[in-house]
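> forwarded from #structure-qc
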């Protein structure tokens, strides 16, 4: 397994194809992923974080021991890999508002002491303010019309100054017909008003009409 420039993310080539991995905290798998000598395969077609790495984002802004606020954790697929990256002394606060997916997320969090499930609406960060500390990284993947607003709201409330945050943006949730590139331009301007936008990568064809923004809180 070879280290990549992204902390906690490894790669291996099988034939002509590159595969991504994280070192599993506990040797367990949760989503039927491949486990090779203690490393879990991160599928970039299931994870926008993985897709951003394949698309050569400048950095993931995330490292060991980080405290992370994860908005839109769903069943915990990508969140479980973030849990591997931050390790036992890090924490991943996993927010999702769908009781159906949080039921499954809870099973993953029961196995992982560094993952905390929070059933809440990310548009209302005040509702979980008493359960989340200041964090080193905010990750947002909610695929909702209000994705930029709620991302910025949470960043302002929870992110430590100079720390990093990542928005996985679904253009079709903002406008189903507009050219996604036009949407990315508008979003970049909105983010730039509050944050330093460090890297922007389009995820096509791994995730159609999605773009990831890596930013730093000023
Ligand atoms: C695209 S899925 C996330 C996939 C996940 N990030 C992964 O990579 O494994 C989007 C998730 O965001 C959640 N979501 C959407 N709007 C939300 C909101 N306002 N507050 C909390 N969760 C929200 C949905 O319930 C859904 O589970």
């Amino acid at each position: 397994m070879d280290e990549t420039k992204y902390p906690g993310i490894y790669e291996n080539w099988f034939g002509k194809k590159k595969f991504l991995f994280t070192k599993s905290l506990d040797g367990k798998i949760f989503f039927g992923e491949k486990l090779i000598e203690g490393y879990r395969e991160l599928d970039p077609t299931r994870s926008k974080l993985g897709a951003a790495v394949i698309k050569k984002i400048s950095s993931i802004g995330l490292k060991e021991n980080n405290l992370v606020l994860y908005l839109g954790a769903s069943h915990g697929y990508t969140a479980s890999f973030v849990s591997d990256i931050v390790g036992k002394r890090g924490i991943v606060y996993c927010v999702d508002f769908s009781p159906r997916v949080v039921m499954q997320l809870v099973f993953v969090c029961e196995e992982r002491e560094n993952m905390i499930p929070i059933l809440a609406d990310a548009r209302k960060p005040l509702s979980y303010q008493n359960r989340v500390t200041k964090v080193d990284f905010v990750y947002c993947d909610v695929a909702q019309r209000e994705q930029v607003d709620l991302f910025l709201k949470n960043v302002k409330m929870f992110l430590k100054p100079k720390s990093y945050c990542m928005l996985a943006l679904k253009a079709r949730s903002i406008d189903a017909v507009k050219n996604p590139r036009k949407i990315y331009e508008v979003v970049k301007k909105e983010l730039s008003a509050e944050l330093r936008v460090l890297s922007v990568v389009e995820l096509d064809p791994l995730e159609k009409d999605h773009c990831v923004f890596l930013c730093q809180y000023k």
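QC bot note: Residues 53-217 form a domain with the Rossmann fold fold (CATH 3.40.50.150). DSSP finds six helices and twelve strands in the chain.
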